[in-house]
UniProtKB/TrEMBL annotation:
Cited InterPro entries: DUF3305 (IPR021736)
Species annotation: Thauera aminoaromatica S2
Protein name: DUF3305 domain-containing protein
UniProt region (Disordered), positions on chain: 136-155
Superkingdom in the source lineage: Bacteria
Pfam families: DUF3305 (PF11749)
């Protein structure tokens, strides 16, 4: 499988703040094999918070990012990274990734990025890819710093 279809869950929390009335964040992702409809759909509507399911996204994996996928999978809590932007009154995801490197590049460019816990189905899929395509760099022998020359080999 080259792509893994997902939907992003965005949450709007009401704030008791005179300058900002709400805060948005990505709070989850779910597999979307059966329902990949891209239109945002409200799934929670409470006075203090609302959640929107935003479909139409697919995780893609690339061999040159395999080391970043490995780093993500071996972290205490593997993440799916969601880059999102405001569109009027609604926060909309723009793209998704499981690469630490890609998420770092997005953050460095000033984008809004949230990391959400990676569901087991996605972790298994990424793990299969990493097992197939990631080869750790061989460890290089490090020469010790010996400024006094105490470790000279006699010849």
């Amino acid at each position: 499988m080259k792509e893994f279809p997902i939907a992003v869950i965005m949450e709007r929390r009401r704030l008791n703040n005179p300058w900002v009335d709400a805060a948005w964040e990505a709070v989850g992702v779910v597999p979307a094999f059966d329902d990949a409809a891209p239109a945002p759909r409200r799934i929670v509507d409470e006075p203090e918070r609302s959640q929107w399911r935003c479909g139409g996204f697919a995780l893609e994996l690339f061999r040159d990012e395999a080391e970043n996928y490995f780093a993500n999978l071996t972290a205490p809590i593997p993440k799916v990274f969601v880059l999102w932007r405001m569109d009027g009154e609604l926060a909309r995801p723009a793209t998704v990734s499981v690469s630490y490197g890609e998420a770092a590049r997005w953050l460095d460019s000033g984008e809004q990025v949230d990391g959400v816990a990676m569901p087991r189905e996605i972790a298994d899929w990424v793990g299969d890819f990493v097992n197939t395509h990631y080869q750790p760099e061989p460890k290089k022998k490090v020469k010790r710093n010996d400024p006094l020359g105490l470790d000279r080999r006699r010849t």
